[in-house]
Specification:
Blueprint (H helix, E strand, L loop, with lengths): L12 H12 L6 E5 L6 H14 L7 H10 L5 E4 L2 E4 L2 E4 H6 L12 H11 L9 E5 L7 H12 L4 E7 L7 H4 L3 E4 L5 H10 L9 H7 L3 H11 L4 H8 L5 H14 L2 H19 L2 H15 L4 H19 L1
Parallel strand pairs: 1-6, 1-7, 2-5, 5-6
Antiparallel strand pairs: 3-4
Helix pairs in contact: 1-2, 2-3, 5-6, 9-10, 9-13, 12-15, 13-14, 14-15
Length: about 325
């Protein structure tokens, strides 16, 4: 077999060995649970595994074609399921909702209708591959009716494999976990994280210690954090990371945050400032004040007032330290 797809997956050697051996020995399980922090390669590993599985039964000159079809999402024996929003009678993934600029208060879910579509998909035999494969991203978002419906499918999957992707076994119903072979994924060390960011053309992220601290060994999180960082006006960010110079300055910054940033960006900014301030001053009081601000924003307190109180406190505590 050529064109090993796992060559692109960094820092997850145990997962690679388990999945590669399953294909090599023709002992692919009916269900897997890929568990680990978001952004460390779980979805990439699922795609690599499907590529390897589907290309293992074709002639060498067809391997690249099979792998490309899996990557493009148009292989007839692969169903990839993501959490969705319900909007005007349509189901939209998070990416589709963002493209339409829809703001939703609740997170997307894997819905009962999607599980029924999985059942229908698995009711027919595979057309080209050795088996049908279904991948469920963010499996922890399944409500109990959807999880119970999936359980029936897992009990009799037929000639198929179902891959659930979740942050931890505890985030999924125990009855589902018990029917899956667990494949653990781990946060990357500094060298592996650097390698991934360079390979994916994001070397500039390595110059932002606060972003790397938030990412905590997850390349996906590092990239998402850096993209969010670009949303924050650079002048505002400069003033905030240096801390307010006066009480008036704190109030002006609070007003600008309320005016320029939506709630999601404000919540992210709290994370960023916690890491940035801790690296600069190691002041637990400031970190706790920001945590209180997060809780207030989550319960829909008036954002400008939240930021005024928070930044005034940061200003006072920095003056005390100085």
């Amino acid at each position: 077999m050529t064109n090993n797809p796992f060559a692109q997956l960094v820092g997850q050697q145990q997962a690679i060995e388990l999945l590669t051996e399953a294909v090599r020995q023709n002992r692919v399980a009916p269900a897997y649970l890929f568990v680990g922090t978001e952004g460390v390669g779980r979805s990439l590993a699922a795609r690599c595994f499907v590529e390897l599985l589907f290309s293992s039964v074709v002639e060498t000159h067809l391997v690249a074609s099979v792998q490309n079809r899996v990557r493009q999402g148009n292989h007839p024996d692969l169903l990839w399921v993501q959490p969705t929003y319900q909007y005007q009678g349509q189901r939209l993934t998070a990416a589709e909702a963002a493209e339409k600029k829809l703001k939703r208060k609740a997170p997307p879910l894997i819905r009962l209708e999607q599980i029924r579509e999985i059942t229908q998909f698995l009711s027919r035999p595979a057309l080209e591959a050795p088996r049908n494969v279904v991948v469920l991203e963010e499996a922890q978002t399944m409500a109990e009716p959807a999880a119970n419906a999936l359980l029936k499918t897992l009990e009799e999957p037929g000639q198929a494999t179902i891959i659930l992707i979740a942050p931890a076994p505890e985030s999924v119903l125990p009855t589902l976990v018990s029917r899956c072979q667990k494949i653990p994924f781990y946060c990357l060390d500094s060298a592996a994280l650097t390698q991934v960011l360079q390979q994916t053309n994001h070397p500039e992220i390595l110059q932002h210690p606060a972003v790397l601290s938030i990412a905590a060994g997850s390349p996906g999180n590092a990239i998402a954090c850096y993209e969010q960082l670009q949303v924050i006006p650079s002048e505002l960010l400069t003033h905030l990371t240096a801390a307010p110079k006066s009480a008036r300055h704190a109030l002006e910054l609070a007003k600008k945050i309320d005016k320029d940033l939506d709630t999601e960006s404000q919540l992210w900014l709290i994370d960023y400032l916690q890491h940035s301030y801790w690296q600069k001053w190691h002041q637990p009081g400031i970190i706790n004040q920001l945590e209180q601000a997060r809780k207030a924003l989550f319960v829909y307190a008036q954002p400008r007032l939240v930021w005024e109180c928070t930044l005034l406190s940061v200003h006072q505590q920095c003056n005390v330290q100085n």
